[in-house]
């Protein structure tokens, strides 16, 4: 294993982008470094490079920013072929990695995978699938476009063309063929959930080329339950993540608005989230309107750094994940379990898989503010936080790295 030279490719660097996939990729890189393995982290950046070069370094010469972009988000094709066929190829030839682990291809282009196979035919190519982009052209959400955002259960060229009438069923047929031709070059796919594996199996990826490995968490001692004042219940709820239509923050706020007045006096919601300003004007107005209605019942804190998660979790009794799309394995679930906090989550997809209803958390009917409101009431009255004792520590970063080295990268 120590003979491996590992190149990890991510669509962003955590210093610039705080998404769960970027953090998971970077955590693996740092663990490989700690283990003494020869590894390089290549992260796409949308910032211009000094002098216009394709690459620059950040933090150390082992962390490289790839200043590139994608011009075709339908076929995931690079917007600068020179970056693929010259700069990226030259990096491969110079470093000669034995394992290239892609944690994404968005914003960079699927051509990178083909270039690896052409330049280093004996290298092992690994792709971690964090969502359903290859299957679904609607941002990989498997949610129907439109205000209702209906869940999609299976893709087909005909159905996809109904969602995007500007494209034909033939367009989607050829899109699928093209993406699969690239995916055929991949040796192994990693998924942090079984739910995602089932979706990709149904789409056509062979089961033997997929393995489930959860995103590892740092080893910490879980903080004690929040200390209560006399007569206080477990009424501190928290949301962590992006604020966009898919994450269900509007459902969450509406649920708090539906709480009985006597309960509203005993609870509080902390929203730790970013990127609201990047959403549509209509969505921003909806969120700001709900926040105004709720007043002091809710605090919008904005974005947070990874190292702050422990302090923020300590202040919460429950973590709520109200996403209206399937999700895969949201990092916040593992983070909450790592800090001994039970969750209230939508009863679909990766959330339903990871949160055991009535054991490590509570499910509520997806998209239903009424159902979520009922569960918030019940949770707030549980002064003992009884589900917390059932939480099992999630996979550590060390064990996550060991599983990749032993089960995915090969000898």
Task: Give a short synopsis of this structure.
The protein is α/β, with parallel strands linked by helices.
Q: Widest sheet: strand order? A: 3-4-2-1-7-8-9-10
> Mind telling me the CATH superfamily name of the largest domain?
Glycogen Phosphorylase B
Count of individual helical segments = 14
What letter string, H or E per element, gives the SSE order? EHEEEEEHEHEHHEHEEHHEHEHEHEHEHH
Task: Report the major sheet.
Answer: 8 strands, mixed
Counting helices, strands and paired strands, the structural category is alpha/beta
CATH architecture call of the largest domain: 3-Layer(aba) Sandwich
CATH topology of the largest domain: Rossmann fold
Radius of gyration, taken over Cα atoms and rounded to an integer in Å: 22 Å
Report low-confidence residues grouped into runs of 5 or more. Answer: none
Helix content estimate: 25-40%
Structure description:
The mean pLDDT is 93. It contains 14 helices and 16 strands. The chain has two domains: 5-216 and 396-408, Rossmann fold (3-Layer(aba) Sandwich), CATH 3.40.50.2000; 236-390, Rossmann fold (3-Layer(aba) Sandwich), CATH 3.40.50. The strands form three sheets. The protein has an eight-stranded mixed β-sheet with strand order 3-4-2-1-7-8-9-10, with helices on both faces. The protein has a six-stranded parallel β-sheet with strand order 13-12-11-14-15-16, with helices on both faces. By secondary structure, the protein is α/β, with parallel strands linked by helices. It is 35% helix and 18% strand. The chain is globular, with a radius of gyration of 22 Å.
């Amino acid at each position: 294993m120590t003979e491996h030279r590992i190149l990890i490719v991510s669509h962003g660097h955590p210093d610039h982008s705080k998404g769960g996939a970027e953090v998971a990729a970077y955590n693996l890189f740092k663990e490989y470094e700690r283990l003494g393995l020869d590894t390089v982290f290549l992260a796409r950046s949308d910032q211009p490079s000094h002098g216009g070069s394709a690459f620059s370094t950040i933090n150390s010469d082992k962390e490289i920013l790839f200043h590139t972009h994608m011009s075709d988000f339908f076929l995931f094709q690079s917007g600068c072929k020179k970056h693929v066929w010259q700069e990226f190829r030259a990096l491969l030839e110079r470093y000669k990695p034995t394992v290239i682990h892609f944690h994404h291809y968005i914003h960079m282009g699927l051509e990178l995978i083909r270039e690896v196979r052409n330049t280093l035919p004996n290298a092992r190519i690994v792709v971690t699938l964090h969502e359903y982009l290859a299957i679904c052209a609607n941002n990989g959400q498997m949610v129907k476009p439109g205000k209702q955002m209906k869940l999609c259960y299976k893709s087909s060229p005909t159905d996809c063309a109904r969602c995007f009438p500007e494209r034909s069923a033939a367009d989607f047929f050829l899109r699928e063929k093209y993406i699969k031709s690239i995916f055929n070059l991949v040796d192994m796919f990693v998924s942090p959930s079984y739910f995602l594996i089932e979706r990709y199996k149904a789409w056509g990826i062979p089961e033997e080329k997929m393995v489930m490995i959860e995103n590892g968490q740092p080893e910490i001692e879980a903080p004690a339950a929040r200390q209560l004042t006399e007569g206080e219940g477990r009424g501190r709820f928290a949301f962590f993540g992006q604020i966009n239509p898919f994450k269900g923050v509007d459902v969450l706020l509406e649920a708090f608005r539906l709480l009985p007045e006597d309960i509203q006096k005993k609870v509080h919601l902390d929203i730790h989230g970013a990127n609201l300003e990047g959403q549509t004007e209509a969505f921003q107005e909806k969120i700001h309107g709900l926040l105004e209605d709720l007043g002091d019942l809710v605090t919008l804190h904005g974005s947070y750094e990874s190292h702050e998660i422990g302090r923020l979790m300590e202040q919460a009794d429950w973590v709520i994940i109200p996403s209206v799309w399937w999700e895969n394995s949201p990092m916040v679930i593992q983070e909450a379990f790592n800090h001994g906090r039970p969750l209230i989550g939508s009863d679909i997809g990766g959330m339903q898989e990871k949160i055991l209803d009535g054991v490590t958390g509570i499910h509520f009917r997806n998209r239903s503010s009424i159902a979520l409101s009922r569960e918030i009431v019940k949770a707030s009255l549980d002064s003992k936080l009884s589900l917390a004792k059932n939480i099992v520590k999630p996979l550590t970063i060390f064990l996550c790295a060991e599983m990749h080295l032993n089960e995915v990268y090969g000898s």
